[in-house]
Amino acid sequence: MALAAAGFGSLASCSDFLKEEPYSYVGIDEVGNDDAAVGLWVTGVYSKWVDDMARWGNFPRLLDMDCDYVSGPDWAFSNLGAGNFQGDEVVNTLWNGCYNLINRANVAIANVNNITGADEAVKQNGLGEIYFNKAFAYFLLVRAYGDIPLFDTSIDNGADYDQPRRPIADVYKEIIRILEEEAIPRLYKNTDAGYQVGHVCAGTAVALLAKVYATMGAASMPAGANMTIKTGTAYSFDAGGNKQLAAPVTRIFQKTQVKGYEGFDYMECYREAARWAGYLIQPDSEHNYGTYGLLPYGELWTKTGYDEVGTDMEHLFSLRTRSGDDTYTSGILEWYNGVENGSGVVATGLYIGNRYHWYYLFDHDDYRITEGVKHRFVVSYQDENPNNLGGFYYPNTEEYKIMATGYDLEGNWVSDPVAPYNDGRNYYFNVSNECLAFTNKYADVTDVTQKYSDAYYPFLRMADVYLIYAEAQCELENYSEAMAKLNDVRRRSNATQMITYGDKDQLRAAVFEERAKELALEGDRRWDLIRWGIYLDVMNSIGGVNNDGTESNYDEAGINKHRENRHLLFPLPSTEVSTNTAIDSNNPGWS
Question: Residue 581 to residues 149, 161, 170: CA-CA distances in angstroms?
């Protein structure tokens, strides 16, 4: 951690940095004393998201895999996806990676403060970026682990390795302090001449602050509020012994208060969430942190969309990698989209997708399923026999079965297959991990045949801010404000049914469901279930009916969804518990 930086091709690095040759070692005395030196320290902090965390494929997928609507092959979901959080090192990536980043941030802060030859605005913005990264790392940690250690300085500057766990309230107090006092006042607005595309800006820190307050608000809300979720039996067998998908049913769960959050004033937290989110949505002369908005759907998941700056800037913070670079890479393309062979055939990957219960949530013409989901895909074994080429269609509705095969669900011939299914392949569907609602969010890469791709992953975007604002205003009983922003998100995606006010429970459920749809596979669903205190109820409502009539805890892809109290928190790495003298036990239920 005495090193300043490990490379240039990293998350949120600007195009100029990406043109530089990467360094494997930069000593502190070689960094310099000017604007470029500030940039090196900043990039060295950003690089930890990739080289230390995402490079090996565990992160960010560990944020997505443990929730109700996500599934995949049992071997890929294995331990984490089945609830055995100590079965391998996947979960530990979050703890180890975030603390390595925090330590590097502390090193960088100390050294940037000592730079005397840089432009003061450049220096202050650089410090703001570093502080933001530190706050974001703490936020990921406290959500996942509860009480966690805090480090004010780096190990190199005298911090003791053996730090005790601090209460959740102390951690959030520090996150808020960092964002309000150290990050937001220093960071460029996205309208400032010095702002670099791809970097975080003042609006990014404001958005995170709103998300922090919304997390605190939901988690601390007293028990008893109703939350409506579409869930239930995932599959059953028909009279012929064929496995069939089951439509979800509507269930109402009662919120529980999350342990460790009891001391917060939940209404005050929601007032703060609405206030900070409102500064980005409707800035005023006193609180103007730049210009932001919702991109047209057709631009949202493109490289140019990620780099859009101005009134339509939506992507506020994203994990960025570099095509063809085996250091500054991630598993995003392979796991979520699949790596192709050059002929449109998935050669490897396509392991994480959404279940049918998620797909069922949408209006028929919603872009998030008409454009955002793969309706046709071919995997390598379906391409091996040139005389019997195959492929999958999704979903198994009458509409798509007729388009792909020409037959309706009862096996009656209707018409010839239509494009793109009229290419001579034999298209079919099966109830398994092969046929899920796989996303197109991460498909825009320089080379889809390159495993080491430049797929980006969104940590924060304006759609989240709109939905945070809607959630907060709902709880504050400003229902027209809540509906307006909720419907802005829906309207952008061509959802035909706008939300109207029925009662508070219905509006709350509508906002929560919209988060499931809009932010799918962006690392939010588990944490939304946790903060609302319904994670255990929702997960344990999923199951199936076997051929012999017995019930299981498994979804249609064969993933165990049963959860217990211990799953509310990730376990600390066993090495942390065994070597840190200030920590004498793991989270409840973990060794």
Answer: 12, 9, 21
Taking alpha carbons only, the member of 176, 78, 207, 183 closest to residue 127 is: 183
Please report, to the nearest 10 degrees, the dihedral formed by the alpha carbons of residues 282, 200, 513, 443 taken in order.
Answer: 130
Cα torsion 54, 59, 60, 65: sign: positive
Mean pLDDT by 10 residues, the chain (591 residues): 32 30 59 96 96 93 98 94 95 97 97 98 98 98 98 91 97 98 98 96 98 98 97 96 97 98 98 98 94 98 96 96 93 97 97 98 98 98 96 98 97 97 97 98 97 96 98 98 98 95 95 98 98 98 96 97 98 96 97 93
Distance of alpha carbon 307 from alpha carbon 309, whole angstroms: 6
Asked if 297 and 245 touch (Cβ cutoff 8 Å), the reply is no
CA quadruple 173, 89, 61, 261: dihedral sign: negative
Q: Which residues pair with 229 in a beta bridge?
A: 251
Q: Assess contact for 375 and 427: CB atoms under 8 A.
A: no
H/E stretch holding 210: helix 202-220
Q: Quickly name the fold that domain 15-187 has.
A: 1.25.40
Give the amino acid at 533.
G
Global pTM value? 0.95
β-partners of residue 5 are 26
Q: Which CATH number fits domain 218-283+293-297+459-567: 1.25.40.900, 1.20.1270.10, 1.10.3720.10, 3.30.70.1140?
A: 1.25.40.900
468 vs 294: CA distance, rounded Å: 14
Q: Which amino acid is at 394?
A: Y
Number of H helices, E strands in the chain: 20, 15
User: Which alpha helices (H) appear in 476-557, and where do they start and end?
Assistant: 479-492, 504-518, 525-531, 535-539
Give residue limits of the domains in the chain. 15-187, 218-283+293-297+459-567, 322-455
Tokens (6 digits) for 461: 């975007």
Domains 15-187 and 218-283+293-297+459-567 share a fold: yes
Helix%, strand%, coil% for the chain, nearest 5 = 40, 10, 50
